[in-house]
Write a structure and sequence with these properties.
heterotrimer; A mainly alpha (373); B alpha+beta (509); C alpha/beta (400); A: 373 residues; mainly alpha; Amino acid/polyamine transporter I; two-stranded antiparallel ribbon; 73% helix; B: 509 residues; alpha+beta; 3 domains; 12% strand; elongated; transmembrane helix (chain B); UPF0353/GerABKA_families (chain B)
Chain lengths: 373, 509, 400
């Protein structure tokens, strides 16, 4: 099995990008964002989406210029071995935090809504069990699954948003600047971190792409990211239209939306599909991050068995998800204030720095070949 | 002296010596008959015919007479009497006209042929024997296969005789590209295994993989096709079958044209089709004999049946015990009315009803035909009604279990229906323990297992997991047959990637 | 497959099996362990706390079974008093012996006393935060004590909770007579300070030895204090307010016959409204708001007693009379709510949305400004059908 190259097709990578960037954000983000930015939340999202796009372009540029090499490898080329280890430490820490936060998010969702008596460790351990087993099956198997699960997740979200049409009052979107311009910028900051800025971590997964058709890959990845952006904006718009001023007050807005949907006059409680979409999105994101973590650690430590770190990482993330967050306020603080800062000023900055170094130091492949002749 | 492989014992010219060696090895095989005949002028030459009367259904003199008639056909020519020398000359040098004649030189070969249903003729003074294949007793007639009936379409099913089956396949695929390779397995059973494939349709890597896996089976006695399945498959403990069985010759022919390999074993009507993907289990051959729209509807119904059979009881348990807010109010109140007074929790109630249903189903299979159907229907009704009146179960649970059972019957292939019946129970347990969350986790684990499962190197969920929407024209819907004729379907199997070596766990990692 | 492989799988299975023992069925509750609350009535106690009365579904009573003798009511009503709703709910659960499941609640009734004196937000918070509650439960106030309404036998539905919801919805749809104010709408309004809305009020009616509840008016609910104003908005104004808010779906408009006509004084023609649209604009004229309302109704003739619409001239006359009637009714209703300084038309919201700068000036003093605002109403009516009969009364005098 090790000899078999774990290569993903462009379509599979595009689905992977949607899974990793959208993940559970479609359910968590709208309410927190609206709480901060008010009716102009969708403007924050558009700005953050632009920022994410720039980062994605840098990531693609790095991938193309270094001909599909791993981030660890090309960092070693650019800045040397010890510096690579030093810069990879915050990346590893970011990945661990992200995984723990995602899993803790699943747990928090279930405890607040559907199953309040069950302890948190049940949700965290079982979710991570499945994510770890998937990561261990290899990224090819994971990508095959994601190509199935991502459309299901998007379809559920879209169906809920469409069926909820009677609930929308588009006048609630006005006034746009009800909280002023400052909160909108604050919202931009938050969403530039989570979820759009996290595309900087996707650089760790890009090496699994095949060597050919990198143009098609770029197009498809940008398209996938566009789908993520559009879905988030639409979800936020619909949430504001449905709940108006109370949108920031409800914790899981898409879930609340689904539970208020009325079909034919009776309230059909189809919020289970949103619960399903949430689990799927978080599970896919966690799997992606564990795979990325495993790759970074195995490349740095140089072990031969490429999947040696997966089970220990799973255990570590389970324990982290149970201990990192001491209260809902703590979770809010860490995920919506510390994490965006980290993503923008550590993760994305790293990508930009590496891209700058690459631009300065290396020549594009065609020019290098010409120089050789 | 015992014959050894290096020095096989040869027949001698002495007829009685030959007879003695044969009788030594075939002693106590009372159905082997030694017939002595005399021929020639004054009937002074002796000949021996040895055959197995349980295999050969022929008048015992027939072949002897026929062979000698072959000889004396020259009577009109030179007036010659039949002598051993002429026998030797005729059969050994000048050939013969009768059917299936062979010349035998070794003792063991003679015994093998006798046990295969040949009539072996030995002549005094000649150190060779002549063997003819004699028609054997008629075995089972070709009828409609019991487990795969259709409303419209051919009703030809395979029988226990390998040659009849191969004949039916050859008749459907009249091309020299249909290759049939034989393999004889086992010392005691000497079963012939036939492997059929279409030369330009099968993918060479898949074929090589299959052949390499089949190696080594010759030393074992293989009584049935299922032994080959277990020998060759990727994952022994997965509930999902990786190869398909069928008794319908049209299905076999269609599979061969699709690039699959068909394995037939003598004495067994079950034909193994390798490899089988999950999507193959969702279709029947009848889908191609009815109109497009109807076939599409039925396929969609079957996919629904698949999910219902797998998840309906667990969904009911999860909703009623963990998420009562999701049941519509009026339905909930109706359920409440009937659940009041049931002493068991939902899981135990479901388990009781499911196990009763399984027992009924098994009993229905084992009972003799006239009694069987009556018992299952009456049994189901009576037990269901009695259970409700005794407050062991609520009507809604009976409905759920009945729907599940009916849905599992709607799944056309028996082996995948078994898989779903088994998997129902872990889902029920997961739903009992953790409700909707447990159900999701269980489904994800099942999906993971199916994605990693490989059959002959092919991903089991080909066309679903490596998603290829163009293949769905034959899986979820059934495109008009003109479309399928113009773009043949044998592109479904994945090319070029060589199958990974089978790991220790028998599954490609 | 080697023995080591089997051993590894065996250990895996054992561990997974042990894992399942972890789960302790915390959330698992058989359906029979829940008491499903159909309706809740909240009253004020003498000490200022809450008296919570819940109506809980009693299974097994609606179906006639040979073995059970009591086919009684299909619900059970339980009461308890405490200073907060959660405490009272806990006490009720203790009385019942089962946990309370709020997710199938249909109606929330507030006694008038409670609505006048306690902040509705306190009550709403419990229901909004609790898991699984349907946002579509209706909120209503009641004349007098609310718990009396839960003791009424339902006329057709299973429980009174369902009946009340149906009453609410039907009257909202058929007669335009009350707003269907669901819990979720109330929660949204609660989050936007300064909102004023109308809550339907129930009244007990005794009809031929059967008690029934009808909606006889609306209470004005102001949301920063969360209390209702005393004084009922009469039902006759509600129609027009609903029309202005765009929530009037179907209803009837009575057009009294001219007093000099042949018919008696009480006779009236009826116009059935099938569709109603409204447009509301607020502009500033001299620092004061100027509210311009345009209503456009579409419908057919319900009853013709003294008018006829056979010719175009008659048709125009009839429509003109209708429009005048609607205009005068609407102006009367507007005058009433302006006097009460209750902006239930959401005019302020409109200013906030479309003209935020203007709203900044007016926001602090809006109730006053609203009461002083200039209003103008224009109505357009489209008569599209006369029903199955021609456009003249059934018994009509021949035309002169």
């Amino acid at each position: 099995m090790q000899g078999r190259a774990d290569k993903l097709t462009t379509g599979q990578l595009a689905c992977f990008l949607i899974a990793v960037s959208m993940g559970s954000a479609i359910i968590f983000i709208p309410s927190s964002l609206i709480l901060t930015a008010g009716n102009g939340a969708w403007l924050s999202l558009l700005g953050a989406f632009g920022f994410g796009m720039i980062t994605l372009l840098c990531v693609l540029f790095l991938h193309r210029r270094h001909e599909g090499r791993d981030m660890v490898e090309y960092s070693r080329i650019l800045i040397g071995r010890t510096a690579t280890v030093i810069i990879m430490i915050p990346v590893i820490a970011m990945l661990l935090f992200a995984t723990a936060a995602i899993i803790a998010g699943i747990g928090a969702f279930f405890i607040s809504g559907m199953m309040p008596e069950t302890p948190l460790y049940i949700f965290c351990s079982f979710s991570l069990l499945v994510a770890t087993l998937t990561a261990r099956a290899g990224i090819a198997a994971a990508a095959r699954m994601f190509v199935l699960l991502v459309p299901i997740m998007i379809m559920f979200a879209v169906v809920v948003l469409v069926i909820a049409l009677p609930l929308y009052d588009w006048n609630r979107l006005l006034p746009i600047f009800d909280k002023g311009a400052g909160p909108i910028l604050h919202g931009l900051f938050i969403t530039a971190g989570f979820p759009f800025g996290e595309v900087c971590l996707f650089a760790l997964i890009l090496p699994y792409a095949g060597k050919d058709n990198s143009r098609l890959l770029s197009v498809r990845l940008l398209l996938a990211f566009g789908i993520t952006g559009i879905s988030m904006v639409i979800a936020t718009l619909c949430t504001i239209a449905a709940f108006g001023a109370a949108a920031g007050h409800f914790n899981y807005s898409l879930y609340q939306l689904a539970s208020n949907i009325e079909i034919g006059g009776t309230n059909e409680r189809i919020e289970a599909v949103i619960g399903v979409a949430l689990i799927l999105g978080s599970y896919m994101k966690a799997t992606g991050y564990i795979i990325a973590l495993n790759r970074v650690l195995s490349k740095i430590s140089g072990v031969k068995d490429e999947r040696a770190f997966i089970y220990p990482l799973g255990l570590l993330c389970t324990l982290l998800s149970l201990t990192l967050f001491s209260s809902p306020a703590d979770f809010q603080y860490l995920v919506y204030q510390v994490w965006p800062f980290t993503v923008i000023f550590v993760g994305c900055l790293l990508i930009y720095a590496l891209a700058g170094l690459t631009l300065a130091r290396t020549k594009p492949a065609s020019r290098a070949q010409e120089a050789e002749r | 002296m015992k014959p050894s492989p290096a020095n096989p014992e040869l027949l001698t010219e002495d007829l009685s010596a030959n007879r003695r060696s044969l009788e030594q090895l075939l002693g106590k095989c009372d159905d082997v008959i030694f017939d002595v005949l005399t021929y020639g002028d004054n009937l002074d030459y002796k000949a021996l015919s040895v055959y197995c009367s349980s295999l050969v259904a022929v008048d015992r003199n027939h072949y002897m007479m026929q062979s000698l008639e072959d000889l004396s056909g020259r009577r009109s020519g030179r007036a010659e009497s039949v002598t051993p020398a002429s026998v030797e000359r005729y059969f050994g040098q000048e050939g013969a006209t009768s059917q299936g004649m062979r010349i035998v030189t070794e003792l063991e070969a003679a015994i093998n042929l006798i046990l295969q249903g040949f009539v072996v003729l030995m002549f005094d003074g000649w150190n060779r024997a002549v063997a003819y294949q004699a028609p054997s007793f008629d075995k089972r007639q070709v009828t409609e296969p019991v487990s795969e009936p259709v409303v419209q379409g051919p009703r030809e099913g395979t029988v226990e005789r390998l040659s009849t089956n191969l004949g039916m396949i050859r008749q459907r695929l009249q091309t020299p590209r249909l290759k049939i390779e034989f393999l004889v397995a086992g010392d005691t059973t000497k079963t012939t295994i036939a492997m059929c494939y279409l030369d330009n349709a099968v993918i060479p890597t898949v074929l090589n993989e299959f052949q390499s896996r089949l190696q080594g089976i010759e030393q074992y006695d293989v009584p049935e096709t299922s032994f080959i399945e277990d020998w060759v498959q990727d994952s022994k403990y997965s509930p999902f079958p990786q190869y398909r069985y069928t008794e319908r010759t049209d299905a076999i022919a269609a599979a061969i044209m699709d690039g699959r390999i068909a394995v037939l074993v003598d004495n067994s009507p079950m034909v193994l089709i390798a490899p089988a993907l999950l999507t193959d289990f969702l279709g029947t051959s009848e889908d191609y004999y009815v109109r497009t729209v109807f076939a599409t509807m039925i396929r969609l119904l079957r996919i629904g049946a698949f999910f219902i059979a797998l998840m309906l009881p667990s969904l009911y348990i999860a909703l009623s015990t963990f998420h009562p807010e999701m049941i519509p109010t009026v339905l909930l109140l109706a359920i409440l009315d009937t659940r009041e007074g049931i002493p068991f929790p939902a899981f135990i109630e479901a388990l009781i009803m499911e196990i009763s249903f399984e027992l009924l189903r098994e009993a229905g299979i084992r009972l003799p035909r006239p009694v069987g159907s009556a018992v299952s229907i009456v049994g189901a009704l009576v037990i269901g009604q009695a259970a409700i009146m005794a407050k062991i179960s609520s009507p809604i649970m009976v409905i759920v279990v009945a729907l599940t059972g009916i849905a599992s019957f709607a799944i056309p292939h028996y082996d995948i229906a078994i898989a779903i019946r088994i998997l129902r129970f872990p889902f029920m347990v997961a739903a009992t323990l953790l409700g909707g969350f447990g159900l999701m986790i269980c489904s994800l684990l099942l999906l993971l297992h199916l994605t990693c499962l490989r059959t002959l190197g092919q991903p089991y969920l080909t066309s679903i997991a490596p998603l290829k929407l163009s293949d769905w024209r034959d899986i979820v819907v059934r495109a008009p047959l003109t479309t399928m004729l113009k773009n043949p379907r044998n592109r479904r199997l994945l090319p070029s990637e060589s199958a990974p070596p089978r790991g220790r766990r028998g599954r490609a990692r | 497959m080697s023995g080591a492989g089997v051993g590894a799988w065996g250990r895996c299975m054992l561990l997974l099996g042990a894992l399942t023992l972890l789960t302790g069925c915390w959330d698992k509750n058989e359906l029979t362990a829940w008491g499903f609350v159909q309706a809740v009535a909240i009253d004020l106690t003498e000490s200022g706390g809450f008296r919570v009365t819940t109506q809980i579904y009693r299974p097994g009573a609606s179906e006639s079974r040979s073995d059970t003798s009591s086919s009684g009511k299909s619900f059970v009503t339980l009461t308890s008093e405490a200073s907060t709703i959660s405490q009272a709910a806990g006490q009720i659960a203790a009385q019942l012996g089962r946990n309370l499941q709020w997710s199938h609640m249909r109606a929330l009734l507030l006694g008038e006393e409670a609505a006048l004196n306690r902040n509705i937000g306190e009550i709403l918070d419990f229901f909004s935060r609790s898991q699984g509650l349907r946002g579509s439960a209706f909120v209503m106030t009641t004349e007098g004590l609310a718990n009396r309404y839960l003791l009424i036998n339902p006329l057709i539905e299973n429980t009174i909770g369902q009946q009340l919801k149906t009453v609410e919805r039907l009257s909202s749809l058929q007669a335009g007579a009350s707003t269907a104010l669901s819990l979720i709408n109330l929660e949204i309004l609660a989050q936007s300070p300064g909102s004023v809305t109308l809550l339907p009020r129930l009244k007990l009616l005794k009809q031929q030895s059967q008690q029934a509840a009808i909606i006889d008016g609306m209470n004005v609910l102001r949301l920063p204090p969360g209390k209702i104003d005393s004084g009922l908005v009469p039902i006759k104004f509600v129609d027009n307010i609903m029309m202005i808010r765009g929530e009037y779906k179907r209803g009837l408009i009575t057009l009294p016959c001219p007093s000099d006509g042949e018919a008696g004084g009480e006779a009236a023609d009826l116009f059935k409204v099938g569709n109603a649209k409204s447009r509301l604009r607020v502009v500033s004229s001299g620092g004061l708001p100027n509210i311009k309302i345009h209503l456009s109704l579409q419908g057919g003739v319900g009853e013709l007693v003294c008018s006829s619409v056979l010719t175009k001239a008659e048709h125009d006359r009839f429509v003109k009379r209708l429009e005048e009637k609607v205009t005068s009714d609407t102006l009367e209703a507007l005058e009433y709510i302006q006097k009460r300084k209750a902006d239930v038309l959401f005019a302020g919201l409109r200013v906030e949305r479309w003209n935020p700068r203007l709203w900044k000036q007016w926001r602090s003093d809006w109730p006053e400004l609203f009461s002083k605002a200039k209003v103008s109403v224009s109505v357009k009516i489209d008569l599209t059908t006369t029903g199955m009969d021609a456009g003249s009364p059934l018994t009509s005098q021949p035309h002169p």
